[in-house]
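User: I'm putting together notes for a lab meeting next week and I want to include a structural view of one of the chains we've been expressing. I don't have a solved structure, so I'd like a prediction I can at least talk through. The sequence is below, exactly as it appears in our construct file.
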Amino acid sequence: MAVPCRIPALVALVACGCSRHSGESQERASAEAAGDAAVAVEVTDASATTTSGELDARGDAGNVREIIALSSPAPVYTATEWPPKDPLKASEERKGVTRLGYLRKGSRVPIKAGPIAKSNCPEGGWFELEAGGFVCAKYATLDPTHKELKHAPHEPWLDKPLPYDYGLNLTPGTPLYRRAPLRKERKEYEKTLAIGKGAKASELAKKLKESGEALPAYLKEEAVSDKPKVGFHELKGESDLIAERMLRGFYVSLDSKQQAFSGTFWRTVSGYYTPKDHLLVHEGKTEFQGVRLDAPDETRKLPLAWIVGSKAKQYALTTKDGEKKAKKGEPVERFSIVSLTGKKEKVDDRYWFYEAEGGFWLRNDHVAVVKLPKVPEGVKPGEKWIDVDITDESLVAFEGDKPVYATVVSTGRHDADPAKDHTTVQGSFRIREKHVTDTMDDDSAADATYKIEDVPWVMYFEKSYALHGAFWHSSFGRERSHGCVNLTPFDARNIFHWVGPTLPKGWHGVAANPSNPGTRVVVHK
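Assistant: Thanks for the context. Below is the predicted structure for the 525-residue chain, given as structure tokens.
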């Protein structure tokens, strides 16, 4: 797509799907650079979560020791060395050293050995992980009472559709404080927020403008109808207390509720404090889920239709004077799944109708149809691969030539204007890296500046194009995204734990390498 991105990542990215935040990504591993130097990673399914209590008990028995990550990210390397900035000028011991993945602050990971004393990690040496790879003691500790862990976020929920709770910011300019503020500090820093019943940011912006006072960047969009762009640099905190300001519509991931003398705050997963009253906490619910076609008790098979229109009806097709006519019948519930015969008819040269096994017909603008796609050349027996159809907005997961999971998705919006065209990239790719969560943001998109912290179940397959969960909309079966393939959080989690590279226990992100390869993803019209 044509939109430029600010995306330091596991690899250098020059084109854009969903824009990635520049925080944790800067420390992540390069899958392409891993090559034959990658160490073997034990591919234990991370969804089989062991609680920290169980790990502690095993440690007490002398069977397992574990480290706790002190920072986000805590990078995992292929050796007890730092990757070279310039591989061509690397010393012999640093040649081929890459990042395998990373841990997030507070996560617990079993170790095989360590600390291994070495001068290049003076903070305490290196820890060798049971799953493979090494972590410098600068980023991890054996001490669960370490002061840096006092405010560590809870570990992500791997057994739920969403790994964290999320809050939607409702007020332009809501601050992210570095600590809980005092009352006088809140009064000072929140005086230009639209607070109180009936308060409107647009009216506040107008009042400030008329009085000649400086208009904060976060009120620019409220002051005029043409909605000028607000850059992230304009939202940086104006004091040491404030890390940044949020625009209306930003999402933050939430760790815990905190009570202070100045009010109630949410502490975010990133460690900031934001006033509770300005957030709408997302209510997680699963409106529909994909079909496990290989389940023992599953009788449905492709093609299947997901009802995505809110006014979908059953139709009866009749022929009168040689012309096909469609007659409306009973309504069909949105997101229900209907088995199809594979037959379709066109009526009035306008709509296609699909025949359901129940004897009625469904209109094409009310459904997203998942068909059995063609198996690409070179797929081995039992090999996992994914087919994404951006015309039908469908996804089918395969093992060899056998479909095992099917669902509907939202891919990138197409537009004749190149600046607004977010069409999902097409081709045959492999999943390059996986992240339990990854923050996505962009202040250069033609529609609006956006930021969503900790987007769940992210699987990058080409530059910044990814499969990932989307909890902020329910437009599945329709184009919607900035280029990525959006799935319901339920479906995204299922696909995340099924595809390679496998995420070792306790890790937050992993890069593909020869011993832990990524699953093939085929995207087409």
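A couple of points you could mention at the meeting. The chain has six helices and 32 strands. Residues 57 and 64 are 9 Å apart (CA to CA).

User: Perfect, that's what I needed.
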